[in-house]
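@channel sequence for tomorrow's demo:
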Amino acid sequence: MKTQNAVVTRIAMIVALGGFLMGFDASVISGVVRFIEPEFGLSKIQLGWAVGSLTLTATLAMMIAGPLSDRFGRRTILKAAAILYAVSALGSALAPDFTTLVIARMIGGFGVGASLIIAPMYIAEIAPPKIRGRLVSFNQLNIVIGISAAFFTNYLILQWSQSDAAWAQALMFSEYTWRWMLGLETLPAVIYFFGLYFVPKSPRWQIMKGSVPEARITLNRIYGEDETDRQIEDVLRSLKADEKKEKVSLKEIFHPSLRLVLGIGVVLAVLQQITGINAVFFYAPMIFEQSGIGTDASFMQAILVGLTNLVFTIVAMLLIDKLGRKPLLVIGMSGITLMMMLLAWGFHSATYELSSEDIQAMEIPAETRAVAGSLAGVPFASDVAFKRALAETLGTEAAVEFESAFITAAIDINPTLILFGILGFVASFAISIGPVMWVMFSELFPLRVRGLAISFAGFINSGVSFGVQLVFPWELAVLGNSITFLIYGVFAAIGLVFIWRMVPETKNKTLEELEQQLVKK
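structure tokens (generated this afternoon):
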């Protein structure tokens, strides 16, 4: 049995590399935004498009990946996803303009959506029941590891871009910093593609296509001959039962009897994204730069975001069946509300004033330093007013290019408070609504409509995520740091009240008991 478990664990670990690529691809853009905005002369909405475009196509891919995998096979679609990741990484790294970059990112989005759906599906179909939960969780864990890896490699590349070492100069890290950040993903994408050749086809898919002898060979490797016959019989029985089922239409999930569970599911789907988690993951260095710590430190602190997310995701996995779903949601949403209010207060308390000495000490072109002299000694009560003055004095392009340097020189703020607020927010998210939402989706909806209802809620979740990513740079520029985080905090507070009053505890209840409790007959 241990040998069989080792075989399937190795297979699951290879397949779960798709989760790593998804997390990496989604978060690597966080280090790129500060470079592409001045290089391509982007507006704030265009910058949001560069970040959010991946989520847009990932949403579409999630809708079509399942049917495509039924037709062509799970492994085939995962190989296609690996190719899409590699093409996206190379295309993004070599993009000569904004449009090409967005197109390349959207290509990667198709890989993200496909791997997000198919990797856990494949693992669930091949894993023995006793270790299925643990193996399927590999994919979610790898997503979190991929996010952390993106923050770490972005920081490394930034450091190499400032190195005088011959090898760093030869690889032109200083000239192509952001292109290296995006192009690096090609390596794990290629490893994933060739690693999938060591992964068998899904036995359930093989049986579904009538290839029972081939499925028997696969199952023998995992279960042994004694268990294989029973597994094949179970799959055949399940497929026969599926044939007799009527197809569920979209309108069925809007039936009055499902109003409560659908409402809870939709609110959780919106709440997970509207509180700003992907604004933090995809713009972490930009946020930290707003606290005046400078570019290098902002990239370093972004690594802490990834590590915090990883640690508290593991904590959530350990606690979810002990404490329950609702306690984790209440604790997490309380933390999110508190941390967002803390961030709003921290940025609201900041003031901005440049001295002549500050301007002279800045590493900026002499002509920019001369023009900026008119700002010396002028106090500003908000980041919006200060950035507006920079744009009016220096011009839009120079203001964007040197914004971090000017904020670092002018701001009076407690950066430790901002770091604590961001890490506290990420920890609160990772221990609660981040992973708990998906668990509750699998428990709330009745069996007959579960697949369709989860897809519908997931679609809403992705749509809100895209919206948050798209408008975040505009929010910082127009509303300011304080108001932006205050908005997220208000949404979190409303969500906390909703969870406290409306969301049931699902721990230790059968799916049938939950259906009887929540679905009106």
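heads up for whoever presents: The longest strand covers residues 351-353.
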